[in-house]
Design a protein that fits this description.
mainly alpha, 5 helices, 79% helix
Length: 108
């Protein structure tokens, strides 16, 4: 019986160890998420997907006669969201696709 008891203790010890590992991984994951959010928050000012870079793209679109009036103002509102900034920068060389996307969002 004592053998079973010690094997049960060993099993419980492994279980506890696995639980601790899982908790550590969850904490690391949470810390990673927070770090990524901090980086994303900083990148709205500087970085590839920054608001100034997006404004530059939108101004180019406006200068080419593809974006005007309320649509331009709406596009400026769109780039407040980091996901939209990624789309704007990704489509910066494809004015017609960028214009279509802005129209889609504007007419939603």
């Amino acid at each position: 019986m004592s053998v079973r008891h010690s094997s049960t203790e060993a099993s419980m010890s492994e279980y506890d160890s696995n639980c601790l590992d899982t908790v550590k991984k969850e904490k690391e994951t949470t810390q990673d998420v927070v770090a990524k959010e901090d980086i994303a928050a900083a990148s709205y000012v500087s970085g590839q997907y920054s608001i100034p870079n997006c404004i530059h793209v939108l101004r180019n679109l406006k200068q080419n006669g593809r974006l005007y009036g309320k649509r331009f103002s709406y596009a400026l509102e769109l780039i407040k969201d980091s996901k939209n900034r990624v789309i704007v920068i990704s489509l910066k060389d494809c004015f017609s696709e960028l214009e279509d996307w802005i129209d889609y969002k504007f007419n939603k």
